[in-house]
């Protein structure tokens, strides 16, 4: 991306995670001047590339959807196209009912379209399978405007499917309680399919068939060296295009101010859409930056605080967003001690089975670059903690490693001790999407739109996955570029008339 000419205005982006950086990248390509302010000392948010015992690993999110284009397109735009790599293996298991069982095929986020693979896996009992078989005979599904995914699936297929399949799969995405998670927000395609077909299993079968007919290619992809390289590459592109990025720079206050030549900051009667107003951004150090527009790409609590004075309704809505905390425990072992035990890409753990870890990823098998970095080492990681199940996170790092090793011993017979460990705690890391979440987001955006040239984006609004965050950022950036161009055009028109 080359530096744009004919700048349309100065935009301050609050937040240096992937959403904020993607917004900055888009704004620069559209001709804006950009300053990114990140409160922490590191860019990337939940995308964090690191190492253990000299082996490159992700210490946060490790993959992104490949069949949704936004994140893949961004990676290619910042020079990472030749580093995109799908998993070397994607054969995951479920640790349930006393052993590792194959993840059944033909499901949509745990909802079976074909009961045969589910029956063969042993994940669901004979009684549970009989309950699933009865679902097409039930009265047509009534979903209304939204419904809790777990409650709805349980009402149609029984709790076993929810507890043994849907919960561990969705828990890996949101670290939440599936019985309270919005179906419309978390799995919108399944929501619409169930509404269209009236039967949940028929809807899942149709979606599975559509996926099978899609062009060949990986569902997920990573990046050689770690998905955490993506925000760093975007940041480099932003700087190369003339953008400024500051870390360790929390924002204390946002304050709308009148534009030069305008007594009240508004020469347009439209509500927030084309006002010729500016923003004063005040950092914690007391520095002030003047901006023509602002992108709030910060977590909900920060956005709520910064909007409290000028958009109290949006602030109140944002303050209601709950977050889940979790820890990732990364361990390196001598390969000879682990390789025969750890098969496939890893396993998920249904909470109903009462174990501590929620998942285990065999990184040296799943990602080629991890396994190749040191053939004598084997890297794996576990996760602990989810929404309202965070008591174990009060333990010290050694305690979390011990809990992980105890569960790994039960699951795969691992008795070896790691040669290196790393614990990364993601406190308040994942926003929760309860029933009505999309309506809440619509209310927030409606209130924010009343403000002059300010937009919000990030995981709290349109999805927690990387492509969803990038899409959210692009929408915010494109809307502001349109507003800034309109303001610039009106200014030029006034100049000609004068």
UniProtKB/TrEMBL annotation:
Keyword line: Cytoplasm, FAD, Flavoprotein, Heme biosynthesis, Oxidoreductase
Catalysed conversion reaction: coproporphyrinogen III + 3 O2 = coproporphyrin III + 3 H2O2
EC category: oxidoreductase
Enzyme Commission no: 1.3.3.15
UniProt superkingdom: Bacteria
Record domain Amine oxidase: where: 18-481
Obligatory cofactor(s): FAD
Pfam family, one: Amino_oxidase
Intracellular or extracellular location(s): Cytoplasm
Function: Involved in coproporphyrin-dependent heme b biosynthesis. Catalyzes the oxidation of coproporphyrinogen III to coproporphyrin III.
Family in the record: Belongs to the protoporphyrinogen/coproporphyrinogen oxidase family. Coproporphyrinogen III oxidase subfamily.
Name under which the protein is recorded: Coproporphyrinogen III oxidase
């Amino acid at each position: 991306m080359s530096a744009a000419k004919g700048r349309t205005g100065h935009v301050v982006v609050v937040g240096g995670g992937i959403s904020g950086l993607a917004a900055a990248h888009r704004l620069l390509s559209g001709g804006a001047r950009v300053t990114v302010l990140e409160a922490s000392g590191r860019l990337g948010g939940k995308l964090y590339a690191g190492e253990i015992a000299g082996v490159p690993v992700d210490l946060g999110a490790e993959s992104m959807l490949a069949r949704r284009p936004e994140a893949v397109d961004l990676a290619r735009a910042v020079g990472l196209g030749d580093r995109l790599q799908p998993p070397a293996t994607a054969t995951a298991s479920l640790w349930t009912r006393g052993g590792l069982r194959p993840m059944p095929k033909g499901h949509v986020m745990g909802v079976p379209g074909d009961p045969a693979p589910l029956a063969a896996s042993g994940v669901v009992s004979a009684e549970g399978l009989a309950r699933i078989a009865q679902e097409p005979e039930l009265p047509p599904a009534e979903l209304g405007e939204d419904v809790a995914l777990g409650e709805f699936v349980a009402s149609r297929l029984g709790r076993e499917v929810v507890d043994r399949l849907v919960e561990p799969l969705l828990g890996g995405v949101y670290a939440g309680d599936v019985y309270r998670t919005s179906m419309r927000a978390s799995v919108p395609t399944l929501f619409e399919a169930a509404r269209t077909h009236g039967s949940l299993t028929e809807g899942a079968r149709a979606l599975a068939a559509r996926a099978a007919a899609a062009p060949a290619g990986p569902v997920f992809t990573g990046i050689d060296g770690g998905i955490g390289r993506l925000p760093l590459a975007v940041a480099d592109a932003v700087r190369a295009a003339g953008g400024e990025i500051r870390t360790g720079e929390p924002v204390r206050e946002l304050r709308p101010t009148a534009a030069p030549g305008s007594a009240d900051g508004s020469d347009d009667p439209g509500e927030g859409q084309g006002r010729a107003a500016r923003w004063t951004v005040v950092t914690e150090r007391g520095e002030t930056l003047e901006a023509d527009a602002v992108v709030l790409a910060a977590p909900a609590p920060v956005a709520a605080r910064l909007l409290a004075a000028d958009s109290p309704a949006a602030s109140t809505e944002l303050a209601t967003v709950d977050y889940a905390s979790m820890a990732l425990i990364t361990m390196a072992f001598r390969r000879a001690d682990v390789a025969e035990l750890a098969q496939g890409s890893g396993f998920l753990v249904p909470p109903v089975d009462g174990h501590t870890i929620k998942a285990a990823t065999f990184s040296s098998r799943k990602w080629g670059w991890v396994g190749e970095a040191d053939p004598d080492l084997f890297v794996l990681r576990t996760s602990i903690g989810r929404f309202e199940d965070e008591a174990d996170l009060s333990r010290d790092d050694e305690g979390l490693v011990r809990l992980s090793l105890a569960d790994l011993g039960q699951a795969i017979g691992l008795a070896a001790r790691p040669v290196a460990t790393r614990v990364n705690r993601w406190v308040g890391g994942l926003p929760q999407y309860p029933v009505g979440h999309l309506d809440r987001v619509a209310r927030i955006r409606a209130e924010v739109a009343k403000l002059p040239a300010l937009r919000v984006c990030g995981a709290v609004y349109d999805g927690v996955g990387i492509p969803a965050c990038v899409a959210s950022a692009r929408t915010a950036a494109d809307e502001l570029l349109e507003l800034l161009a309109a303001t610039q055009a009106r200014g030029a028109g006034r100049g000609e008339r004068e």
